Amino acid sequence: MAGPPSGSGPLLLAAVDDTDPYDGYPVQLDRVQEDVPLAQRAVIVHQPEQWPAGCFCRNCKARWPCRLHAWGLTVLHAAGWTGVQIAELVRRAGAGEVPWA
Fold this sequence. Notes:
Blueprint: H1 32-45, E1 48-51, E2 54-57, H2 67-78, H3 83-94
Antiparallel strand pairs: 1-2
């Protein structure tokens, strides 16, 4: 059975994440209105959850704000939504009223 060359020590395999967590998803301004329903869902579903190690996304477990939450906010702002309107959307969703139901 082939293995690492003698004397080189054990072979270690590690997962490599090629994505930069600060790279956001692009927002296409010419189709912002079409993306509003997806952006609403992203903002509602990708909410923060506090853990001993910090704040993480409840859905994708990435550091919060995760890329999808940030993308959703950017799309909604580009579509003319205010922070108050977005907060109201999240509040209503928390009460069970979601726009896709």
